[in-house]
Prior knowledge:
Layout lengths: L3 H14 L5 H17 L14 H25 L6 H30 L2 E6 L3 H11 L4 E7 L16 H10 L4 E5 L7 H12 L2 E5 L11 E5 L2 E5 L7 H36 L5 E7 L5 E7 L6 H8 L19 H9 L6 H7 L3 E3 L6 H4 L15 E3 L1 H5 L6 H13 L3 H16 L6
Parallel strand pairs: 1-2, 1-3, 3-4, 9-10
Antiparallel strand pairs: 5-6, 7-8
Amino acid sequence: MAVAAPLYLLNLSNGAFGLQVPTLASVSVAAIWVLLLHLYGLYPRFPRYVTTSTLNELPTLFHAALVSTVASGFCLTAWGADALSRPLAVLLGSAIVLLPLLRLITRQVLTRLVGPERVLLVGTGSATATVEQALDVRRDIVVVDHVGLPGQWRREMNDEEVEVDHLERIVVRQQVDRVLLSTMELGDTAVGDFLHWSRRVNVSLTVLPEHFDIVGVGAAIDQVRGATVVSLQPPALSRTARTLKRALDLFGAASGIVLLLPVMVAIAVAVRMDSSGPVLFRQQRIGRGGRRFQLLKFRTMVPDADAMTERLMADSSDPHWLQLEHDPRITRVGRFLRSTSLDELPQLYNVLAGHMSLVGPRPLSVRDDARVGGWARGRLDITPGLTGLWQVLGRKSVPFEEMVKLDYVYVNNWSLWGDVKLLLQTLPAVIAGRGAR
Length: 437
């Protein structure tokens, strides 16, 4: 389906551009597209990733469309076609638009017809609980059960052992598609044994390495005489990377201020009419390299809110964050601004000034920053952001320790496309009100 649409447009271009494509040539081009898209891993028997999405596939789809279009040009030239520039441009443009769109539609239709991917969690560990919470909010994945590790694969024996036969019965009864395995308690040869078992019962296997949860996708896996080694690069941005990131910040912040200026004026008037006090809230935050700066927000609380913080911490659901179901400090307009994240629009001026970035680690207050130590201080190697992994995954519903870990993962695996992807993911997260307080 994804291949037929670009080729249909290529055939339409026969009349528009005077291109004569024999039927056999069209079939050859179709075969090239199917083969190359398959080689790019877009039609796997078992999905390689737990959380496959169209957004994650965009770089691969763009590259596959470009290579397939070039290969189509060579094929058509061999069949005697000429004046291919404009038809191939139409083919490439339509493929870049239609491939992601059709894959998104197909994925949603299959999820409704066949149902979401059914995942079984095996083993225990802190990272396992985090992954289970993240998968629970997805529509295309359902966690059917969470069981302990079978005794024969444990590093140490346990009185409450799960037998392999019991595990197989769960796979069959729950129609499991993928097993997510924690490595916390695994014995020396257990991964190989588990992989062999997963092939026998015909399920995908994803291993959750408990000790590598702060590494992220930037790790490089290699083989040294049969031993698997993982290379970890220090979290450092080159001068070119920082220049590209700053250019994106300036363009995005300037465009946002121009487009949203009427909205910000309306919000300022509403804040002033709702309660006494200044329109803007200013607070010292910790920026890149530990430098302090004044963060700007629309005021959403009563003027003496900071003085009430320590007293209210006794009722907080998190020992590090002040998380209350009903915070008495928040004003009526402030509650709406927080739920929609509109209170953060003045931070676009922080981005223009260079204190913040569009995407980055969460800008912590002086008090919260004092709780971060050791390897986690690496989160300050990049300028804090208006949005980031913490915003997309749940804002203040993300525990403090997990937020610090997410920030470090972001810094350790920075890429320009990663920033663009997080910006695209922020809007749905904000609209859904995910983690808003």
